[in-house]
Queue: 2 jobs
Job 1
Amino acid sequence: MRIVTGTFSHETNTFSNIPTTLEEFAKQGIGHGDEIAQRFRGTNSIEAAFIDASEHFGFEIIWTVYGSAIPGGLVSRDAYEYFSGHLLEGIQAAGAIDGILLHLHGAMVTDDLDDGEGHVLEAIRRVVGPDLPIVTTLDLHANLTPRIIQNCNALTGYDTYPHVDVYDRAYEAAEILVKIIRGELRPAMALQRAPLITPLQSQVTTHDTPMKRVIDLVHRLEDNPQVVSIAAFGGFPFSDIEPAGFSCVVVTNSNPALADQLAKQVADAALAERENWIVHPTPPEEAVRRAMAAERGPVILADIADSGAGGTAGDATVTFKTLLDLGARNAAVCSICDQEAIDICLQAGVGAEVHLLVGGKRDRLHGDPVSITGKVRLIHEGSFVRSGPQNRGVTQTVGRCVVVEIGGRGGIELMLTEHRAHPNDLQYFRAFGIEPTERQMLVLKSAAHYRAAFDPIAAETIEVDAPGITSPRLENYPYENLRRPIYPLDEV
Ligand SMILES: [Zn+2]
């Protein structure tokens, strides 16, 4: 059995002015051929699951290309053509194959395409013909389109957010593909969308949220022996495209009517909870005062509107500025992405006092630049090995990292990074000499992915209502292309 695989993953925030070029993919490491296996073997990743499944089920993997960039603005035409081109060439060069197994995201928007994954799948289908089985994994934040399900045979989606089950869902996708190839399974797939767009915080599955209740329903429905897999997609709301929002895909074993019925049942359950998806973050001043008054730390101040993992500039300043204004101490901030400030610190060197204007430079949506004076405490090349529940063992880079200490020892440690960081692992602090459990408060620029690693150490978690293009206040976004009517923008 010979199976071709490839990775092309991006979550596109169409409100971002940072183009996702080939260079953005290169920052996270582009892979070709067998080097992809070498990089991911033994890690808690999708690619490692494909490797393990190949050994268990006895198939050969033909690796094509790996590309995954930090969420940001529109994927450039060049980048799209590079990865889709390498995928297609790899498939054509592989000779006789039995199936295709993909790692896609489902929320990619390019310069010209609202439905990046749908077009990738369509192009592959055109090349391989109607009979070769294609199975893909998708992210829980995928915005599903008919084109996606019309051009693959089955798919799996994550059941968790933070996404701690990517390995399991990828292994499941490989198993489904093997069963199709062996003739043990004839998938029938149905897609149902709900007229619902939801913020990321109520899609979290670490505690009782609407998404958690939907996933619990999915698991009960999956007990039906005719069901192969059900994926509920919370969707990625920061994308002004027609399909953004909640959807469900059901895969059954040759039972299209059941697939339709269950997909509708899940979509209806999500819509029935419509008011519960709305979240109520805390104003910055109130949040910081509460963190300062807390009996013990660390209090997590989640800067949810500036989530690097959601495509923001990573240089929002309002929460950080509130720490300064209120005189917060024993605080660490991860991070502000600011090349200009980093360059000044590199010039000055470790131990030097620096005057900087940090953050708020990429656009007018994330607060103003803030003037600070501090001491360069650390300069680091910026890579580390992840140790938490997400992608454990995978090497991560934030570009070069500088820690600036403001207000002397015990003041505020501001991390400056070259790349947009999305702190979802304790190593985002520990690798840079900051022990997160010893701080009174930690500012994390993350919508929700921080929870897998930081909930276990948090004394309290506060979602801060600061400006930014991953703010959960969906009524404030200038949507023009989104399907309507859709809740909560319209009554449905
Ligand atoms: Zn996601």
Job 2
Amino acid sequence: MSLFTPETIERVRDSADIVEVVSAHTDLRRQGERFVGLCPFHEERTPSFSVKPAEGFYYCFGCEAGGDTIKFVQEKEGLSFPDAVESLADRYGVDVEREKEDPQAEERRRRRGRLGEALERAAAFYEATLWETEKAAKSRSYLAGRGLREETLRAFGVGFAPSAWDSIVVAGQRAGFSIDELQAVGLVQKGRKGGYYDAFRARITFPVRDVRGRTVGFGARATTADQKPKYKNSTEGELYRKSRTLYGIDRARGPIARGGRAVVVEGYTDVLALHQAGIEETVAVMGTAITSDQLKLLAGYAGEVVLALDADRAGREAMLRAQRVSGAGKLRLLVCGMPEGEDPAEMLAAERGEERFRSLLAEAVDLPVFHARAILADGELETPAGRDRALDEVVPVLAGMGETITRQELVTEIADALDTDPGMVGRRMAGARPAPAPPAASQRAPLPAPRSEGGDPGPEYSGEGEPAGGDGDPGPEGGGGAPAVRRRPTTEERREDAFLAMCIASPATGAEYLERLSEEHLVGERARVALPWLRDHLRDPLAELPRENEELFAEISRLTMQAEREPAEEAAIELSWLMLERARLDRQINHLRRDGGEQSKETVELHRERARISDAIATRSG
Ligand SMILES: [Zn+2]
């Protein structure tokens, strides 16, 4: 475990400008000491999201998302805690210091750092070669011919690997890297006679970067027709795992998070062309198959993934595979029907291409609909036996869909195609098992677990250090941070929060009421967490609030924000107090009833007291 020192985390919190960080995701305007805007975590039309720059935290009254800058980056940009800290540290120029780590972990991290540097240097070398050498002239004109502008190519670090056998072998070693290191990142290969040579020669290179923009490998395209294969990727190694990487994710993650949608294509140039056209939520899979890890990564940013893969058989299979590996995830998978034999880059290079692509995107259909149509298209619908087979195949698809209008319409469409009535399809569906079942449990993309208690903050927030993985290789993406599922507060919790917030808003009166409040008045764990702190710090609850205690920090910052919004006259506090008192009595009465003491003197007394409180509530609220 490589823990950051507490000073590092504190410096990151102090240096990062929370208004600036949040503003990348929603427009904020100043309102007194805070900034307000539409919540970037839930859909809304009137702003209930606030940022308090002085204290360095944000809070949403609608969905109760809240935390500091690091938490925001974790949740909104889908980074693990260490990645969020490092990314903010990079951005705000904070030196990262770590606690002493065990020698093995330190060695692994040091090695990863060196391997990463070897890749960055190679990327810079290839890029310079593309723009500055005569031998890359043909490649430059090829790229220009595909409609790709220099600024786009530079943004993605596209380069050219010269045809010499030893450019990297020589330059890499001269820069101090060992052959072993160069081989470990797939830059050089071992020949049959034992010598080493450059892995990429006479190819256009596309650096593959992780979420944070660090190069982890390369994709390289042939520049002549006889070069095989047409695309050559880095061999998988310590930094590069094809199944966990999405080309373009470093540049697409922001737009994906903002728009809630990702577009998945197949090729490097497709990504470049789409970004250039302003469809910046685009990433590419390495090869045709999309994996559960890739979908999990995307689920950290978006609720919708549009697959715009080739219309050929392989592309279709890939899209159907996506349905299998997505498991029971909440990710909505859609398919954008690309015309056969035309990829997005080609389409965009043609006249009105962008317009055509955008309308294809707008017409994307849910994956099951696409699947069902594919079955019908392949079926022999001329014979009753063929129609029966098609029905057998399509029924499990429908059964896996859930009761939606989309499904209902699809049933009608299928019945039409099979020359039968929707009732027949419906009856078959009722007896069917949902399909297709994931081939193996391990391939299923796990959902973020709902939080068990107390709302914020989730357990992963305290998970500092290396992302989970255990084998010491967390993969290039370093563990995604799917936004946590927040539990809605109960009526009781809301009532308790309102009371505590009013006490903060009018501390003089509030202090008296807090004296009278006991633990018995509170059911919500969150209010119980806040109470002892508020008793001692009611006048300025945020002043000495310890950041390390995240649960307390979350509760107090939430209540303070609420207090600022809701004025509290004494009558309102009184009424709120009475409600808590009545709820307490109700719980006591129920408790006695369960124990069979319904007729006891105590119960009678409690009922009398309850009636008195109810009257008081009626008078005050009337
Ligand atoms: Zn919200």
